[in-house]
Specification:
heterodimer, A: alpha/beta, five-stranded mixed beta sheet, two-stranded antiparallel ribbon, 18% strand, B: alpha+beta, 7 helices
Chain lengths: 206, 262
């Protein structure tokens, strides 16, 4: 009898799981993007969309990387309590956006925070407002696990110190519309001519 | 007669369940409690305050090939032929004969640490066990504990002695080097181990300043920031970690898992 009950419980929980995963498929982002479940056959092996961890946007909406599909993405990793390097990295990416002029609508701008404790979606929203980052910008909060995995995929080194601040490499990365890393440039205030050329090329790519 | 049959059936059941229990028990890896402590970051940070490490649990030894085979069997996406190159390079499980066969010629390594595994694979294994990889701070804290069953002059000397030796053609089994005071086996002397945050930032000490240029200006300037300049073994360990990428699969690099104490 108990075995029977356990069996029913198992089935119920399985159904429950399936239902909840169905729900996640239908998550819609701020910009009306719909979550595309990674289609493993059509996705290039090197696509970072294979990372299925869930993040939250500055609008507190669940987000998986595969939602970036369809547009090239410019990526930076930051933390908002950072007083020197991160505003500069954000400014660098903003400059890239500005130099794309009308074409910037065809690009995602992604900032992922190292600071899983303090950079809540609300905090990221404030930061986005302060810096004048519009709807093309996605600021992500994630679990320690998801953020570390993301950093490993993009070869970005970072370390939290005893005060809760972060030492990190300053890297601007460019992904194509399928999530494959195409270009990286290290350094603050770097010359991004090549970055911009790469993005423009990727916009044209079908 | 019926009575006897029932008893037989019942004992049969018991036997099976007992056997199953035994099986699961033997595959369960022993974890040891590592007491809370302070870990002094190897590289000086702006504040250079020791990092507090809470008590945690750690596998007593590295994950073996046999143990990893169970993981690969249960998780087809981590088999040699199926794994995504983004998550493991082409050296993944190089010595194994095939997806689910370690191989007869490898009979001596069934109980040796699994190597040629990527960080992503190690992460996935620990997650599957409901564990996680230890952080650098946790690993270093646990690894710095004194050996209890070997004669040695200093741990650094012992480790450097091991670094000096070339890789053996066949990797020895686990529990063949030494046990430290926490009870952990082979923290040094057998393999290098993955840590959760192996990609920590080490080349600059200040999160805000661009001190890179300064460091680049002097050949050995990176070492000026080091806490204990005599800890050459630690220096090698940190440079080694700094040279890794998440999908690298290397001959002498394996892992063990840790667990937070709730």
């Amino acid at each position: 009898m108990t075995k029977y009950n356990i069996g029913i419980l198992l089935i119920l929980s399985l159904v429950g799981c399936m239902q909840s995963s169905n729900k996640t498929e239908k998550k819609i982002t701020a910009s009306g993007r719909q979550a595309v479940l990674p289609d493993k056959d059509s996705m290039p092996a090197e696509s970072i969309f294979h990372l299925t961890d869930s993040f939250q946007t500055q609008e507190n909406i669940p987000f998986t990387l595969s939602m970036l599909k369809g547009k090239p993405t410019v990526v930076g990793m930051i933390f908002t309590n950072c007083t020197y390097a991160c505003p500069r990295l954000t400014a660098d990416i903003k400059n890239i956006a500005d130099s794309l002029k009308d074409e910037k609508e065809k690009v995602n701008f992604l900032l992922v925070s190292f600071d899983t404790k303090r950079d809540t979606p609300d905090r990221l929203k404030k930061f986005a407002d302060e810096k004048g980052l519009n709807k093309n910008w996605i600021l992500l909060h994630g679990s320690e696990y998801a953020v570390r995995t993301f950093s490993v995929l993009l070869n970005i080194q970072f370390e939290k110190d005893a005060e809760g601040n972060f030492s990190h490499s300053n890297l601007v990365s460019v992904l194509d519309k399928n999530g494959v890393l195409q270009y990286q440039k290290e350094g603050l205030g770097a010359v991004h001519t090549e970055t911009i050329t790469t993005i423009k090329k990727l916009i044209q790519q079908r | 007669m019926k009575y006897i049959l029932t008893i037989l059936l019942l004992t049969g059941c018991f036997d099976v369940s007992n056997a199953q229990q035994k099986k699961t028990v033997s595959f369960e890896k022993k974890m040891l409690k590592i007491p809370a402590g302070n870990y002094k970051p190897f590289f000086v940070t702006k504040s250079n305050k020791p990092i507090k490490v809470a008590a945690f649990k750690m596998d007593e030894s590295a994950i073996t090939n046999s143990e990893f085979l169970l993981f690969v069997t249960a998780n087809p996406q981590w088999r040699k032929s199926k794994v995504n190159r983004l998550f493991a390079d082409s050296n993944y499980l190089r010595d194994w004969e095939s997806d689910l066969v370690i191989g007869k010629k490898n009979i001596n390594i069934y109980n040796s640490p699994v190597v040629h595994v990527s960080w992503f694979a190690a992460q996935a294994y620990c997650k599957w066990k409901n564990k996680r990889l230890p952080t650098v701070a946790e690993w270093e804290l646990a690894g710095n504990a004194a050996p209890k069953n070997i004669k040695y002059t200093s741990l650094t000397e012992y480790i450097l002695g091991w670094y000096k030796k070339p890789n053996l053609p066949v990797l020895p089994n686990i529990k063949t080097t030494y046990q430290n005071v926490y009870g952990l086996y082979d923290m040094h002397g057998l393999i290098w181990e993955w840590t959760f945050n192996f990609n920590s930032f080490i080349s600059s000490g200040d999160s805000r300043g661009n001190t890179e240029d300064e460091l680049k200006a002097f050949c050995a300037a990176g070492a000026i920031n080091v806490v204990d300049k005599t800890d050459y073994a630690g220096f090698l360990r940190f440079s080694y970690r700094g040279s890794l990428k998440g999908n690298y699969c290397i001959a002498n690099l394996g892992f063990r898992c840790a667990k937070t104490i709730e």
